[in-house]
Fold this sequence. Notes:
- This protein has four helices and 24 strands.
- By secondary structure, the chain is an alpha+beta fold.
- The strands form five sheets. Strands 2, 3, 18, 19, 20, 21, 22 and 23 form an eight-stranded antiparallel β-sheet that branches. The chain has a six-stranded antiparallel barrel with strand order 4-13-16-15-14-17. Strands 5-12-10-7 form a four-stranded antiparallel β-sheet, with no helix packed on it.
- α2 runs antiparallel to α3.
Amino acid sequence: MLRKTLLAIAIASALVACGKSAKAPENAGASASASATAAKDQPKVTLQMSAEDTLTITSDALASGPVITGSIQPERRADLRAEVGAIVIQVLKENGETVKKGDVLLRLDDTSIRDSLTSAEEATRAAEQSLAQAQRMYERQKTLLASGMVSTTALEDAEVRRNNAQSDLAAARSRSVAARQQLTRTLVRAPFDGIVSERKVSNGDTAQVGKELIKVIDPSSMRFEGTVSADKVGVVKVGQPVLFRVNGYGEQPFNGKVKRVDPAANAITRQVEVLVEFADNNRPGVAGLYAEGRVEAQSANSLMIPPSALVQAGDSNYVWRVNNGTLAKVPLTIGTRDERSGRWQVLSGLKAGDMVVRVPASGFKDGQKVVLSTPKAVASASTQTSGK
């Protein structure tokens, strides 16, 4: 009897255990389904933004015109060459050194020229003495002719000798002046205030007539010597502003204005040279640097957006627009870039008055809720938090 009772208890316990294990998967499935539903129904995180985090799209003047490329060159530049054949005995200035007008830049050997000058001066003195003697002879013959003691022929001969002596003296003086000028040319001087841009010779070099010796430029006379495509030159006028950048000066802008437009295009490149003078004292001090910019020939109103608000992803561009408390990703078509302000022209995607995020974050979601708080409300909330 006891054995039957124990057997019945064991069978009942086994049946209870099997029932619990059969219900466990059902409970697990229900729990997973509830978690997924809760995650789906969970709202997106609401963004808190202040007025400084957004900006309103407005229309502004956009300058446009033909592109101009070229280099920075000095208007005052001197390529000093040898005017006499001689040996270079001393170079006094190096590249980059400042010079004043009249400063000696280099010296040439003047030994032979000094000898020529001495000879010319001695010949001049001899010619002066010959002329004086011929003049005395002429005066004496004229007196004797008046007394009837000499013939007219003798007076004419004396006059011829005097005239020849005058010619010899003039020639001797000319040779003396030429020798003195040659002597001064052995000292190469700066023609104006500036800096030495290139030294072509060294001590001991032989300088033939016409050989390049040294170059001097005036850095205060820098200008932009550029070219414009011939099909765009029709809109370029003297006095128009030009905004350009110079290689080596990063993103620093330079302002200028058109000074002259050449009347003829280059026969090979079909480019027209345009000279641009700097509009202020902000100018590079190095000549020969490449420069590129735009002639602001026209101006029109257009929607503009700063580069900080623009997100570029490959070839596409978009912004995050805030409308009725909701964040929206808006694709944009952009045009030209305003060189003065750095802003981009908006061709499509936005309209005037739209509000966009000034500096978007990478975690933004399309359709995300946004709460804009004023600075006063933010300060009040901060005060209450600190009070607690």
